[in-house]
Design goal:
Chain lengths: ~400, ~250
Amino acid sequence: MAPKFQGVDFYDVDNLLNEEERAVRDTVRAWVDEHLMPVIGEHYVEGKFPKHLIPGMADLGLFGANLPEEYGCAGLNNVAYGLIMQELERGDSGLRSFASVQGSLVMYPIYAFGSEEQKKEWLPKLASGAAIGCFGLTEPDFGSNPGGMITTAKETKDGWVLNGAKMWITNGSTAQVAIVWAKTGPLEDLNGIRGFIVPTKAKGFTAKDQKGKLSLRASDTSELVLQDVHVPKEALLPKSGGLKSPLSCLTQARYGIAWGAVGAAMACYDEAVSYAKTRVMFDRPIGGFQLQQARLAEMLTEITKAQLLCVQLGRLKDRGTMTPQQVSLAKRNNVSMATDIARETRRLLGANGILAEYQAMRHLANLESVYTYEGTHDIHTLILGQEITGLSAFN
Amino acid sequence: MRIAVCIKRVADSETRVKIGPDGKSLDEAGVKFVLNPYDEFAVEEALRRKEAAGAGEVAIIAVGPAAAQETIRTALAMGADRGVLLQADRVPADGLETAKALAAELKAGGWDLILFGKMAIDDYNQQVGPMVAELLGLPCVTCVAHLDLVEGKGTAEREIEGGLEVVEFPLPVVLTADKGLNEPRYPALKGIMAAKKKPLEVKPAAFGRGGVEVLAMLPPPARQEGRIVGEGAAAIPELIRLLREEAKVL
């Protein structure tokens, strides 16, 4: 058996965590070691999401873990939630994406914008894994500009009729329920954007997996088509309204991604260190060469900075003062540094670095998606630019 | 079914330990501590027995420093009901001292089962469980790999050299758990949150007298670097000569 993952903690960041937070982290870390690590390489190569792990994740309470206990969730604080994301992505970004979507993009909007009946009906089912959800915001022609969406919801006398297409939808073909965002008024009216709880078995709803992905291969990504899909009045998330509703879900998910990226980076760094100490070239371990030491020193520095960023961001979120711009900074920085670390690890491993037997290239390929989804690196740059100057570069 | 599980906080087997300046104990700086893995089997078995009985109590008892509360919380997060820490700056090296402190705590408890891991992975003593049984005048079965309980008595299977030994015993009893007894559960996140609210009593450990003292703790001798004698079949005669004359193993 592979040795247990020990994490990376150069600045005694553990000391900034409380007992429950450490316990949650250790539980998820051990679970990933035992259940995900032995199978992830094969699933990745075959392009299959490890579906059999869903019940185990649900039993641990990983879905929507920061939502209240009264809805069947674990009621954790946001730092503990972030640590879950970190440990899942230490395994694979695909598994973390699954949990992010279920928790932050499906359960969170129902919790934040749903009626009490909707929360009681859906949250326990989603927490227990009895139902899997997906989130439909992005469209084939509207990625970074979601406000341009052309999916519509027209009110009828007994409900709504939805028409449109959504793309790059994680869990789309696995899900029993989709949170679909659509315009209820004229296309130019962003305030008319509302969220709907749509059962995927509804007539006119189809989900088709997107083929040929070279990244996030252990995750299902689908295209959704809604053709005259009728849903009852109760499908509307009553408190949703305007583009800010789906964007606030993305803030939740991006928060988790900032942590998740640290996990992927730690996995790569761990692999780089162990390889550098044992791989012998020119009669000594390659870790003894200055070029590799510079690589490793850079990695450790960036991981340590990102860890501290996450802990403080989590404390701000728990205090209720976190801003979306602060999340942009963390997502932007951490995913970028994780991608760099994965690439440097891949290089440090030489030819071995291209094999699925090692982790670096899988993480590198995954992180290229993470770099792009949930607000591209570039869009987060512009969000920060707007925050600094008060001038929007894209509106 | 009232069950007590005695657990120990031990250094994680994956961490590198150093010997402290006194030369008799571990330097704990930077060492990660965990619930002794054999004790996890004991905790899991206790939880399963209570769940099967539909009622009862699982209490976790540990001797150790204040930090051992975190270890007890791990067992509470798995599902145990309450914890007792018999606090001491350090766990005595002599198992008898620890056993006397535990026996004093367990004596009046009215337990049906008292469970231990078969040994702690830090000192390998395998003593405390049987000593507690002796001090309480209870039967003891060590290294239990399978357990059946029916109305006041039980049978246990022990993996012994080349086979299985099956033993029968009355309750109450002291058992020590071997690997394979069960598959310990992960503490679920809700369990971790619930563990915060469960009672955990802390009181000073009342150690009895022992008789063993640790004189020194030494790192294992450094292994000599290997030597390559040659390659292929041509190297075999020289290898045999060295094994015979230098290593003297043939």
